[in-house]
Amino acid sequence: MNANLLLTACLLAANISHAQNTPGTARQTEPATPQTERQRHANTYETHVQGMIAHKTALANALAQATDKNTAETAARKAAQTYRQMHDYFSSTLPGIKTALEELPVSEVDAITSRHQQARETAEQALDKEVLRIRLHDAFGNEPLAHLITDIIASGLIPVANLQQELTDPEALQKLEHAMRAYYTQMIGNLQTLLAEIQSIHDKTTADAAAARIRTFFSEQQKTEETAFADMVHTYGTPPDTLKQKIMDEFLPQLRQCQTTSEELKHKLEQTNFYGSQELQKALNQQPEA
């Protein structure tokens, strides 16, 4: 068994929800275990739950560092290291966990699991969203990152169904279509507002102000774009190609019109030397600030 398959097998076994929902994992009656021994088993299980939550959170944070082709390689190395640490942690605690689940009553296992359920769900949702985001961006063209995402999905750490199956439920499809339409409507509205502000530039003061707005817009847009569709897929499921094409056909003319208007405004501002504003010139050319 190669390292990836071993890691997948171990992490599948590490799924706490699986342990929680499998009848017979823990004893159904109170075991004849001394109180101190029982407390030790409870501490072992609780420490394991907390440790897995911490590792999943760390993995999500590492993946979050991949935002483009330039950052993908560093993020892939960090995430791969974190993923290996998760495997090592689970491997080292596995014997104690197996014993704890055998010796502890179901009621105590459930109580420990319930105490950390919200934190676990938060960590898993964060990991889910990062994996979806990177998949939607084709791992930013980074092969090691793409392989890592495949391994994470295979491990069972996140809901595989959302990732591999196109959405077919009519009600969910309708909700997803509404969410996608709302996203593009808001984005185009914000872009049109920005273009109107650029069109109203008449001196250096308004030019500098517009430059700041342009930078803010593109910064916020990049952050929104990175998470918006991942959130939609996480909530509703993967959109079929027919829905993606429908939305694109609906909004592409408006996007093209915004692009045309932007090019025309830039040409007019070039003729005025951007009203003496170097910041406006840099912002329109997407150059870094001074």
How many domains would you count in the coordinates? 2
Rg computed from alpha carbons, rounded to a whole number of angstroms: 25 Å
* Percent in strands: under 5%
Structural class: mainly alpha
Percent in helix: over 70%
Element order: H for helix, E for strand = HHHHHHHHHHHH
The low-confidence parts are 1-29
Explain briefly what this protein structure is:
This protein has helices spanning 3-14, 16-21, 35-64, 69-103, 106-115, 117-136, 143-154, 160-164, 170-199, 204-236, 241-271, 278-284. It is mostly helical and 290 residues long.
Write the topology of this structure.
Elements: H1 3-14, H2 16-21, H3 35-64, H4 69-103, H5 106-115, H6 117-136, H7 143-154, H8 160-164, H9 170-199, H10 204-236, H11 241-271, H12 278-284
Helix pairs in contact: 1-4, 3-4, 3-5, 3-6, 4-7, 6-10, 9-10, 9-11, 10-12
Signal peptide: 1-19
Keywords: Signal
Region (Disordered): 21-40
